[in-house]
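Researcher: Please predict.
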Amino acid sequence: MSQPVSISPQEAKALAVQFGFDAAGIARPHSPALPTWVRSVLVGMQATLDEAYDYEMFIEYDGRRKWHKPIYTLLESLAFRLAEALRERGLRAMALTYEDSLALIDLKRAAVEAGLGILGKNNVVVTRRYGPRVRFGAVFVDAGWPADGKLLDYYCSSCTLCWKACPTKALGPWGFMRERCIAEFAPAPAMAVLQDQMEHHPTPHTRLQCTACLTACPIGSKLPTNFYRDVRRE
């Protein structure tokens, strides 16, 4: 049994920003895989304006494979701190881990339901301020907070730059074809070869998956430039 709720959804979202998320919203627990006590999902958003956030490291030694992605570590850390703070305020709370993310919740759907952005033509969440240059974390709580709701303004309407930028035509008026996406996590053998050829490899064990549909998006593109990317281009 959890203690009586002692924090409002507005206070919870403000707390999320205080701990380091750039924004937060409330969504419904739409997945049947979640524990039965979960009544609301507090979704936190983090801007990823530097590509280093999305570097992935794959190191194998002693018969073991180590995998790491900085943005996932950051989001998990923020979510765990937020969950602990909510528990101190009388709620039952559980932070999302990325090992469980696909099994427990559709984060894109939750972010849209939480009013943090819209599902763009590039099949990712596009926000008003940062465009698609964002990632999401979540905390599950037992408070029956109302969902913030989807945004009424669909601001990804006439532009098709992401479609044109996709090197394998995974995006288009037909929708999204996952098997063609160079950023696919479980690629077919032929796609795995293509990924190795097209992905950026800062080190022998580090890769940056294709971000063509993200960097092509004009929404939020006028934010301060990425110093490291500008230096590398020069």
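Model: Residues 161-233 form one domain.
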